From TrEMBL, chain A:
Residues covered by region (Disordered): 369-399
GO MF term set: cytokine receptor activity; metal ion binding
Domain Fibronectin type-III: 14-115, 116-217
Membrane topology: Single-pass type I membrane protein
PROSITE patterns: FN3
Main location: membrane
Protein name: Prolactin receptor
GO cellular component annotations of the record: external side of plasma membrane
A Pfam entry, by short name: EpoR_lig-bind
Transmembrane intervals: 224-245
Organism for this UniProt entry: Salvelinus namaycush
UniProtKB/TrEMBL annotation, chain B:
Protein name, UniProt field: Prolactin-2
GO biological process, one term: positive regulation of cell population proliferation
GO molecular function: hormone activity
Membrane spanning stretches: none
Phylogenetic classification of the source organism: Eukaryota, Metazoa, Chordata, Craniata, Vertebrata
PANTHER family registered for this protein in UniProt: PROLACTIN, SOMATOTROPIN,PROLACTIN
GO CC list: extracellular space
UniProt-listed Pfam families: Hormone_1
Domain of life: Eukaryota
Organism, as annotated: Salvelinus namaycush
Subcellular location: Secreted
Amino acid sequence: MSSCGMCVHPGISHPGKPVLINCRSPEKETFTCRWDPGFDGGLPTTHHLYYQKEDSDGMYECPDYQAAGSNSCFFNKSHTSIWVNYNITVVAINSLGSTVSDPLEVDVMYIVQPNAPENVTVSVVETEESPHLLVKWEPPHEADTRSGWITLTYQLRLKRQNKKESEWEEYASGKQTQLIIYSLHPGEVYMVQLRCKLDHSLWSEWSTTTHTEVPDYILKERSIWIVVTVFSAFIILLVTFTLAMKRKYVKHCLLPPVPGPKISGLDTQLLKSGRSEDILSSLINQSFPPTISTKDQQVDYLLVFDSEQVTPDLQNGRTRTKNSIDHGCYNHSLLMKVNNEVKVGSREMVEQGYSEGLESTFRKTKSLSTDVTSHPCPQKKPFNNVTETPKQAPVSSKYRSLSHHKDLWDSLARHLDYRETVVKSQSNCDDKHNLSSQNIVTPSKAIGCVEVQRWTKSIGLQVQVPEMDKKQEDYSKVSVVENDNIVLLKRETVPLNCTSCKVRGNHSEKCLQKPCKPNMTVPAKEGVHIGSNGYVEPVIITLYKM
Amino acid sequence: MARRSQGTKLHLAVLCLVVSCHAIGLSDLMERASQRSDKLHSLSTSLNKDLDSHFPPMGRVMMPRPSMCHTSSLQTPKDKEQALRVSENELISLARSLLLAWNDPLLLLSSEAPTLPHPSNGDISSKIRELQDYSKSLGDGLDILVNKMGPSSQYISSMPFKGGDLGNDKTSRLINFHFLMSCFRRDSHKIDSFLKVLRCRATKMRPETC
């Protein structure tokens, strides 16, 4: 084994090349250089730092290896010059050799990096509106901020601890050493960090995190919410109460009622009550077929039939070709023919048509009556009155259609058994009348003359008007036309003798004297009673379907 | 008699107004000056970074040493103690001298920048122009300042710039450009530091400006 000072023995060698990491000046007055020693070659190795300044000759060694720790060189204030280039090298020496690192050119103005701010205090300041954070700190202790040699500017960043993926919010603070943060989330824990820089230096490291919790301030605002809740509940109650009180009005507004037909001569309330007996009695106040119980009874008939053939002059300009009322005052054997069906249109129109028809028929009747010389019946003054009828409002609001009482009508139809014309109350006003065929519902008070109608294959409308009092000018009003069979007239009269007659088909009538009653009940199958006097005495107009 | 007194009163009022218009406080002037010097240095730093991004590696070796800067003859404080010992008049004189010394080189640089063999020479060119603007603005402000400070502050060292052009070949042009910019970077840092020390001293009432 030859001794070889420079030979490379296994495991040992001259040191590896040290590397200068960086040099830093925290306050622009001193600086520290650090190096990485590198491989030591397996032998104890020492490192030396040498520097050379731009403006002076000579190599100088590091003045202090200890102050900044191992593998470092600390240049104190007397050894630090600014705006001067330092050429720094590190040499690693061991027993086998030495290795020189690459040189590093350093100017202190480029290597300034302060330490992080110190004594960071975060406090929560609670005010009426909302709390805010007051962050206070101090500059790093080695920095001299009072001479103007350095100017520190700060930066703060904030993050919510609980919220994941939340970003740091950065705030610039300038030269101030305190900052107020607003817009906090109550009940959250916030993390605060600070850093600073010297003029144009590098930023310092972020300071250690300061945690602070913002108290939950819902309690404070609870009173406000309570007030708001109570107030809105009160408002809601008020509105509900108002709507409840005015529910009819509200209902009327929201769901307007469908106007129903207004047919005079019909008592809707009575019909609504649903008692068929009462209904029958109210609807039919005459015996059927019509009978005249007393001498004084006279029958007025209003004939309603299809107008095309018969009564073109009955039309008062209305386009009601199919409904017409003809009123004829005939002698005994006076017959009329009606050919077509009378179809009932809308009830209001029917009513009006009928009332106008009434007018026309009354006129005609009047004219007819004058021709009837043999008519023993007293003239019908009410005709004059009747002519004035149409000036009345034809529609009585009291009466509604009987459309829904179809079964009632059916029962009536059964009793009334219309085939052909019916007739009359006799001209002599006796209580017997001859029925040629049909049942006629006669009013208890015949008015003036005997009317005979015959219907053949047609629907005839026979109107019987109760006797009119001279004092009173009452006219028949058509209250309803139903099922192409029956038309009701409604009429109010002064109290008269109440008579009720039963009329039935070809049978002779039975006239019964009954006390006046406002509502006579009639069993549905027995036939029709004449209504009592002085009350609502609807006159039934029946349409005969041939 | 009354007319005269009225006239003199009017004169005085106008004079006071004129004086008050120009009576910006010293501290305000200092604040404005230091803000401009801060901006000047920031611009030069960013310019240097732009140049460094595309610098030939050999260029660092070939670059002249900083002692070759045309302003290196000026004796300036080298550390904090020295700087704090310098009088205010001298500080402002140094700042103004340095600033004046760069008027001509900046002209040269701005004329050479558009043709510089550098990818971002457009950026560099605009920054040079901005540098010139700030430099002129700062110079004007310092002139006003020395008028306030007195005649002893108005001494300026002359440092003429002798470099004619940057060179003939692309590499030398780039290297010389870079060298000049690094010199300017250091000098602008000096100006900024001196003015900030001056600012702190001028506003003894308000330590927060330091």
